[in-house]
Amino acid sequence: MILKKDRYVRRDIISSLFFILLGLFVIYFSFRMSIWKNSVPHEGFLPLVLGTFMSGLGIGLLVFSTVRNKIKGNIGGSSASDGKKDLIEIVKSQIIEDTSSGDEKVDLKRLYKYLVAILFYVILLERLGYILTTGLFFMAIVKFVEKRGYFYSLLITLAVVSLSFLLFGTLLRVPLPPGILKYLGG
Amino acid sequence: MGFLDNLLIGFSISLTQTNLLYCFIGVFLGTVIGVLPGLGPTATIAILLPATFKLDVTSAIIMLAGIYYGSQYGGTITSVLVNIPGEAASVVTCFDGYQMAKKGRAGAALGIAAFGSFIGGTVGIIGLSTLAFLSSIALSVGPLEYTTLMFLGCSLVIYFSSKSLLKGLLMGVLGFLLSTIGMDSITAVERFTFGSQSLIEGINVAILAMGLFGIGEVLYLAEKEKERERADILNASTSFFSLLPNRRDWKDSSLPIARGTLLGFLLGILPGGGAIIASFISYGMEKRISKNPEKFGKGAIEGVAGPETANNAASQGAFIPLLLLGIPPNVVAALILAAFMIHGVTPGPLFMIEKPNLFWGIVTSMYIGNIMLLILNVPLIKVFVKILLIPYAVLSPLILLFCFIGAYSINNNPMDVLTLVIFGIVGYLMRKFQFEPGPLMLTFVIGPIFEKSLRQAILIASANPQIFISRPIAIILFVIAMYLYLSPLIRYFIQKYKNRKLLFNSRR
Q1: Which of B392, B77, B373, B112 is nearest to B237 (CA)?
Q2: What is the 3-class SS of chain A, one letter each residue?
Q3: Which residues of A touch B162 (CB under 8 A)?
């Protein structure tokens, strides 16, 4: 199976289906708004146009990603395949080279750990307060996710918590949530 | 009021203690993030957007602009010394800058880059100051031309900044779509709010930007198996510093600097151009013009001087369409436009007339910022390089923390932090699925202006269809934009036709 071999093609197919559905969803809700009255476009006009474009482009992406192997040179990418690349193509290919995700090996465990830490930060921020939550968050990331030493992690955590509180809480007067520490202050 | 009077007013604003401080903070931060690979001006400005809420609009824009042009300086340092472009516009500097460093000429490379950047940047600002009269021409632009101009601008950005045109277009459409969420500014009808009170005002630009560029980038970096071991390379190459280029260096670099200035400035003005493309084209041009093209890639100073000048001139040139037309020519400029809009100011043809103090204050701060950058960069390069020693293990949670605080500070609402995280995950997925978040951000920012202008244009055109004949500029701009989208298909079919013809001839 060609599709299974190319994970980028598979991703393109998934994303194209997502955009087709999103476009259809937008079209449906656009029709529930006023689109055109007395030669004047109304609030539903632009969403309708955009939804139509989105579905159309999604179909385009689906078609191009499934027949990509047949077409030499990706549409819109560095499509010059005859060796006569013009300057713009060179520029684009250079930028692509710089920003492409490449095929580097990935550490999904670390990503999941980051996501869990972020989730806990969001949940605990109001309850525990800025200082405690940020302290726990930093310690968790530096020590347990990035696997640095205890002393190093503690030092970094203390420095970040105190300096960020000083900068945002005191100097910039951002009302950071006190959480349970407000009971200590009376 | 004459040009000099305007400049004097501008300097009286930009030279106040507060604005000088924010200008310094901007250029300093710009240099720092320019040095750090993985953290560009887009992410930094996105992260700092909420911090500007409480600032005066002049100070806020002075700081954000400083980050933008300051990052072009900082990116050079790591390109030359450790062959790691801190910023995308400095990729080409690696080609010859690093080779020069290997030959013990790091000082000359960094010196000429700093001076070239200063010259390019300063000439760019002079261009911006003198071209301010264009606002009177821009005033005669009607909604029809304005809409197509914005459409062309977005199209150029999508065309140049996206790996795949289709994906870039999808991102552009999605950005426009997200901008329609909330109350319609003309009919006051809610769109896509689904009864949520918090969506009535639409999606907050700062939260979206921080999520896509800040959190999204950190999550994307988090899954990388090996972070770069930078410390070893760093220690090996910081031994030699003599930053003043010699007479021969100046002789070899003077023309590339002049060409880079002009090219960068012009490309900066054009939507979709910007610093990255300016530096690549400048490098290509210098190599093509050079009598010794074989020297390029082996340590030619022209390969450093031209692109470095061009990227700085381009970052200054980008302020012309932004300030005079209200059209951001790239994503960073779109975020600066968002900062303007957060403060209730909309740049455009009337901006210079209605808010001359703000306009000239920002323009003159750039002269000061460039001098600050030259002073900062030449003697303090060694200090900035040390920033590279900050490991991702600390940098990543730090970026996350700034984003959290930024999102929370908008309404003191933890729900905003959750929204930020959701956009962060979306940003990560976009990178995984190879979608660039840049076009989305650009169209999201200009979406409301575009929609208003489009509806006005349709109203005018439906009342008087002959307007397309009497005002053909709109059609020309539209045709150019459509050509951009169709050009890959046209090229494909031409190629197919040629191949078929070749096959047919060979069979005969």
Answers
A1: B77
A2: CHHHHCHHHHHHHHHHHHHHHHHHHHHHHHHCCCCEECCEECCCHHHHHHHHHHHHHHHHHHHHHHCCCCCCCCCCCCCCCCCCCCHHHHHHHHHHHHHCCCCCCECHHHHHHHHHHHHHHHHHHHHHCHHHHHHHHHHHHHHHHCCCCHHHHHHHHHHHHHHHHHHHHHHCCCCCCCCCHHHHCC
A3: 76
Q: Is A80 on the interface with B (CB under 8 A)?
A: yes
Which amino acid is residue B350, in one-letter code?
Answer: L
Q: CB B451 to CB A46 under 8 A?
A: yes
In B136-267, beta strands by DSSP E: 182-183, 190-191
Task: Record the pTM.
Answer: 0.83
CB contact under 8 Å between A64 and B166, yes or no, is yes
| pLDDT over 90, % of chain B | 22
Contact: A126, B414; criterion CB under 8 Å:
yes
pLDDT one-digit tens code per residue, B196-252: 888 898 999 889 988 998 899 889 888 876 544 444 445 444 444 556 778 888 888
Tens digits of per-residue pLDDT, B152-176? 888 887 887 677 889 999 999 999 9
Domain ranges across chain B: 3-471, 472-508
* Cβ–Cβ under 8 Å, residues B71 and B79: no
Contacts of A50 in chain B (CB under 8 A): 173, 176-177, 180
Contact residues on chain A for B51, CB-CB shorter than 8 A: 172
Which residues fall within 8 angstroms of residue B1, CB to CB, at 6 or more apart? Answer: B9, B356
Q: What sign has the CA pseudo-torsion B63, B68, B69, B70? A: positive
Is the CB of A15 less than 8 angstroms away from the CB of B224?
A: no
